[in-house]
Amino acid sequence: xxxxxxxxxxxxxxxxxxxxxxxxxxxxxxxxxxxxxxxxxxxxxxxxxxxxxxxxxxxxxxxxxxxxxxxxxxxxxxxxxxxxxxxxxxxxxxxxxxxxxxxxxxxxxxxxxxxxxxxxxxxxxxxxxxxxxxxxxxxxxxxxxxxxxxxxxxxxxxxxxxxxxxxxxxxxxxxxxxxxxxxxxxxxxxxxxxxxxxxxxxxxxxxxxxxxxxxxxxxxxxxxxxxxxxxxxxxxxxxxxxxxxxxxxxxxxxxxxxxxxxxxxxxxxxxxxxxxxxxxxxxxxxxxxxxxxxx
Length: 295
Known about the structure:
Mean pLDDT: 97
Shape: globular
Number of domains: 2
Number of helices: 14
Structural class: alpha/beta
Number of strands: 9
CATH superfamily of the largest domain: NAD(P)-binding Rossmann-like Domain
Largest sheet: 6 strands, parallel
Distance between the termini: 57 Å
CATH class of the largest domain: Alpha Beta
């Protein structure tokens, strides 16, 4: 059987390498985004640049979206120029953005009325995971649609799990972002503590990484901490958005997030200080400021 034709909407830090991995896997990928240079990058990788969402999705078997937040998903999905009005009946829409669970539920309902199937499939792993095609993909939707999409997911990630009905993938992603933010904050506090104590930071992080304190976060972000390199793999702005999602969702179900609420405020304060465009490992800068450093 021939591989399904794919339309990819959103070619940012995550979307560009993910779409390129599908091209490498042999898929015919037509992409659309607002930035011309990113369309040129897709074309250089062997994909096809479209002039509009309608053009990109018209002949696609699978439409994949990867945009920043719920408002952007709604903007590209609805309206006369959006996905639902221009994709063919029977197409599978896979939204890999990180948005509110309710937005995913509403999208699935609206798409069903148009004969379009939907999966919410947010990812974890950051830019490095996208480039290396080792993302963790948490999916919400129907089993049959998940089974159909699995080969596509396997070109993008390594841990691929159907978590439940529509919106479940987004709920799990919200929990993921809670864990990651708290973990980065703990690492940042440890880094400042270690440095102020005069310990060899690289040696300390190496040994911590090999013990119970070790984590994917520490492994991935260790060099960011050591080199104060905060080039964005995942921006503070986006993690601020995600902490809002998990805080609201937890309130709706009656779950207390005492530590998460504090870290959400620390992320918000870092953003307010002008660091929203930096990598989320820049939480280190906030701890340094609180500890008296001029950052």
